[in-house]
Specification:
The chain is α/β, with parallel strands linked by helices and about 230 residues long. The protein is about 35% helix and about 30% strand. It has a 5-stranded mixed beta barrel with strand order 5-9-8-6-10, surrounded by 5 helices. Strand 3 (about 30-40) and strand 4 (about 40-45) form a beta hairpin. Helix 1 packs parallel to helix 6. It is globular and about 45 Å long.
C-alpha cells in the first residue's frame, strides 16, 4: 500500500520528511510532493497549504497522479469537546464542513459527514497506545472543517451547537470528501494546539510546534506498526 500523507503547514510534515528515504521530489501546485519510504512503507508526502481548496486539490493529486492508496491528514486543531485539553489527540471517526449550507445536501455527494476508515483508525489507536506519553490523551471523534480560524467563543459555541465536534480545523473535511470521491480510505489525526476560544491566537503560537510534532510522531508510529 502507498500512503498519502498531507499536512497544511511545514511544521506538520517536517518530522515525517526528515525520517523519509526520499526517492523523488515533484514540484506541483506551488508545493512539492516527496515520494519515498519510511519503515519500508511507500509514501507520498506533501505540505498542502491551509484551507479546504488547497487540501482537496493536493489530496486528489496524491491519489490520482502519485498513486496513493489511502490518505492520512496530520496536523493541529482547536479543541471543541468538553474535557479535551491542549496537546490531546483526536482520531477522526468522521469529518464534515461547519461552513456549508444544508442546501448542499441536495447535491452530490449528499453527505453531511464522511466516515473515516475504521482499519486506519484502529491502527492509529494502536500507535497512540504504543507511545507512553500519549496515555490518556487520545480519543476518537467528529472533526469539522471550515475556511476560518476559530478564535472567538461565540463562534465556537455556534459550531458546537450545530455539529458537536471534538475539534475544529481547516482541511480535514475536504480531504475526507476527496477520498470519498476517489473511493479511498482516509483518516485525520489532529493534536490540539488551542481551545478555539478568545485566547486561541496566543495559545496557538505557544503550542503549534509541539502539537504538530505529536501528530507527525503518531503517523510515524503507524508506519512502523504497519511494517511489522
Amino acid at each position: 500500500m502507498k500512503w498519502g500523507i498531507l499536512g497544511a503547514l511545514d511544521a506538520e510534515v517536517d518530522l515525517i520528511r526528515s525520517q523519509m528515504q526520499i526517492s523523488s521530489e515533484t514540484p506541483l501546485f506551488g508545493t512539492t510532493y516527496y515520494e519515498g519510504t519510511v519503515h519500508g512503507q511507500e509514501i507520498v508526502l506533501v505540505c498542502c497549504g491551509v484551507g479546504k481548496v488547497n487540501a482537496a486539490i493536493c489530496a486528489a493529486a496524491a491519489m490520482d497522479k502519485f498513486g496513493a492508496d489511502c490518505i492520512i491528514n496530520v496536523g493541529i486543531a482547536g479543541a471543541m469537546e468538553h474535557g479535551l485539553k491542549i496537546l490531546d489527540v483526536v482520531i477522526s471517526s468522521e469529518v464534515g464542513f461547519h461552513d456549508q449550507d444544508d442546501v448542499m445536501l441536495k447535491y452530490y455527494p449528499k453527505h453531511a459527514f464522511f466516515p473515516a476508515d475504521t482499519a486506519l483508525a484502529d491502527l492509529c489507536e494502536q500507535a497512540c497506545a504504543a507511545i507512553p506519553e500519549m496515555t490518556g490523551r487520545y480519543r476518537h471523534g467528529r472533526i469539522v472543517s471550515g475556511d476560518v480560524f476559530v478564535n472567538d467563543a461565540a463562534v465556537k459555541k455556534s459550531i458546537n451547537d450545530r455539529y458537536t465536534p471534538a475539534c475544529v480545523e481547516m482541511e480535514g473535511a475536504a480531504i475526507g470528501h476527496a477520498a470519498f470521491m476517489y473511493e479511498k480510505p482516509y483518516l485525520v489525526i489532529r493534536t490540539m494546539s488551542d481551545a478555539a476560544d478568545d485566547d486561541a491566537d496566543d495559545t496557538y503560537d505557544d503550542f503549534i510546534g509541539e502539537a504538530a510534532h505529536t501528530s507527525a510522531s503518531i503517523i510515524l508510529k503507524m508506519l512502523e506498526l504497519a511494517a511489522i
